[in-house]
Every structure is written in structure tokens, then in C-alpha cells.
Amino acid sequence: MRPALPTRPAPNKTAPDESGPAWPAPGRPLLLAADGSGLVAEIEAYLASLPLPARTLAPYVCPYGRVLQPWNAEHPLPRRTLLDRLAHRAARPVPLSAAEHLRLTSRYLTQHGWLQGAMWDAAGRVCLLGAQAAVLGHGYGTVSTVRTARWQVMEVLHATGRPVSSPDAYNDRPGTRQADIHRLLEQAALRARRLGL
């Protein structure tokens, strides 16, 4: 028969259910079998005494997909008042800042598609100018808002080393991609918001 291994002091911990000590008492010898199963029992007891890791909650994902939002989802629709109806005129435009106009332009391009070389096509795709005109035509902002927004786009183009004669010239350059237009509109919107425009 093999002699027992020397005594090894172990911490006096109890199991989480408080049913009794999970470790041998200090000074008590831990007998190991020839196959080392006593060591396995000690490791299992130690692991059982540790607190469970906090469960991280995954974000909820609806199994049925998500509802597509229209490009103007956060803004009210232009409505004709009684005076507008009596005067047989269109509804007053929804007031927008230049930053909001640029963000709506980007969302309009996302929903309807982007185009180079023409203002719009039969499929409904539009260029940068076409998207700005469409946002204005749907009753969001005024001509002054669009003009201020285009100035901000030009400022960003020149500040980032892309001197062009107009935003439309940048839109129609062969190397320009739709992602470049969205990035440009986002930078211009941030600049306009910083300036309070």
C-alpha cells in the first residue's frame, strides 16, 4: 500500500448551499488515490465554491424582422391649414435647420438610390442635387435652408482637400461612390449643427 501524501493546508470554504464544508478542515490530510481522483475531487469542490459568472444579456432580435421606416419618419408631414385651403395654396413647409436638411437628404438617397450624371432616372434614383430638391419638394425646409446646406457641403469639400466647383461636380466624378456622398453629408451636417445652422 502506498503511503499517504503529506498534509496540505486548504482554505476553509463552504459550498454555496451552506450544507457543510466543501474542503477538508485545515491540517486534515488529503488522501489521494493512485489515479489522483482525490485531486479531481478537490478541484471540483473549489470550482463549485466559486460564484457563477454574471450572465450577459444579448440584445433582443425580433424573429420577424424589422419595419422599414420612411426617410422622413421623425418629421411631421406638411399639412394645409384652413387658411391654406381657403386661399387655394400649398401647405407651409416644415421648418428645418440646414443640419436636418442634410440628414434628410442622406436618408432620401438611402431609400431611393443614388445616381451619377443625371438629376433623376425612371427608377427613382437621384443625385445629390436631386435628393435635396426632393426633400424641398416634399415640403421640408425652404430654398434658403437648401442654399445654406449646400454652402456647408462646399466648405467640407474644400476643407478636406477636394476643391470642386460645386457639390454636383463632386457627385459626378468617376471616383465618387455613394458611401462618399453619405460621409460628406454627415460631415456637413455636423459642421452645420456646430455652427447652429
Which oligomeric form is depicted?
single chain
Label the overall shape: elongated
The major beta sheet can be summarized as: none
Could you spell the SSE succession in H and E letters? HHHHHHH
N-to-C span: 90 Å
Give an overview in words:
This protein is mainly alpha-helical and 197 residues long. The protein is 42% helix and 0% strand. It has seven helices and no strands. It has helices at residues 37-49, 82-86, 98-112, 128-137, 143-159, 167-171, 178-195. Helix 3 (98-112) crosses helix 4, helix 3 (98-112) packs across helix 5 and helix 3 (98-112) runs antiparallel to helix 7 (178-195). The termini are far apart. Residues 14-21 have low confidence and may be disordered.
Summarize the structure.
The model is unreliable at 14-21 (pLDDT under 50). With 197 residues, this protein is mainly alpha-helical.
Keywords:
single chain, 197 residues, mainly alpha, elongated
Layout: helices, strands, pairs:
Layout: H1 37-49, H2 82-86, H3 98-112, H4 128-137, H5 143-159, H6 167-171, H7 178-195
Helix pairs in contact: 3-4, 3-5, 3-7, 5-7
